[in-house]
C-alpha cells in the first residue's frame, strides 16, 4: 500500500556520518524541498571519506555535512523518523514517547566494519548506498513535478 509523502523526515543511525547522511542526501536529491530532510546519530562521528566518495559517484555531494546528535536537533517536529541502526531505533522510540511521529526501522548494514583493500571497502559502501536508494525510492516514490 503506497504511503503519502511526509513533510519532514529524520534519518538516524549510530554516528551520523555514513548511513543516515547517505539516506538524507538521496531523499533530498529525489524530492528537493518538497520534503524537509535531516539526519542525526546517537553519537557524533567524523566525516567519512568512503561515504563521500560513493555518494559523489552518483552525483550527490555530502562533503559539507557535519555530524550531529539527537540532542543537537533544533526542531523535533518530524512526521517520520527512519532509524538505520539498532542504537538509533532505541533512541527514536525513546524520543517519540513525547513527540507524535512515526518511526520505521530499516535494518542497514554498517559498511564501516568492512576491512580489506580500498576497493573492497568502497564496494561495501556502494552496497549500502544502493540498498538505501532502492528503499527510499520505494518508500518515497518520486512524484511528477507538475502534480502535487
UniProtKB/TrEMBL annotation:
Matches recorded under InterPro entries: Ptyr_pPase, Ptyr_pPase_sf
Instruction: Name all Phosphotyrosine protein phosphatase I domain ranges.
Output: 7-142
The lineage's top-level taxon is: Bacteria
Q: Which SUPFAM superfamilies match?
A: Phosphotyrosine protein phosphatases I
Keywords linked to the UniProt accession: Arsenical resistance
CDD domains named among the record's database cross-references: LMWP_ArsC
Per the UniProt entry, what species is this protein from, by scientific name? Insolitispirillum peregrinum
Please state what the protein is called.
Answer: Protein-tyrosine-phosphatase
Q: Which Pfam families match?
A: LMWPc (PF01451)
Return one Gene Ontology term, BP aspect: response to arsenic-containing substance
Entry keyword annotation includes Nucleotide-binding = no
Amino acid at each position: 500500500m503506497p504511503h503519502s509523502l511526509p513533510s519532514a523526515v529524520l534519518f538516524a543511525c549510530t554516528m551520523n556520518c555514513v548511513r543516515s547522511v547517505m539516506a538524507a542526501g538521496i531523499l533530498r536529491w529525489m524530492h528537493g524541498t518538497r520534503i524537509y530532510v535531516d539526519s542525526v546519530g546517537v553519537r557524533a562521528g567524523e566525516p567519512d571519506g568512503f561515504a563521500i566518495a560513493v555518494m559523489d559517484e552518483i552525483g550527490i555531494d555530502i562533503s559539507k555535512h557535519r555530524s550531529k546528535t539527537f540532542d543537537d536537533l533544533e526542531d523535533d517536529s518530524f512526521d517520520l523518523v527512519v532509524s538505520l541502526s539498532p542504537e538509533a531505533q532505541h533512541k527514536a522510540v525513546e524520543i517519540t514517547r513525547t513527540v507524535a511521529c512515526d518511526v520505521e526501522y530499516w535494518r542497514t548494514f554498517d559498511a564501516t566494519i568492512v576491512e580489506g583493500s580500498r576497493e573492497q571497502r568502497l564496494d561495501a559502501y556502494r552496497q549500502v548506498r544502493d540498498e538505501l536508494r532502492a528503499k527510499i525510492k520505494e518508500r518515497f516514490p518520486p512524484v511528477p513535478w507538475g502534480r502535487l
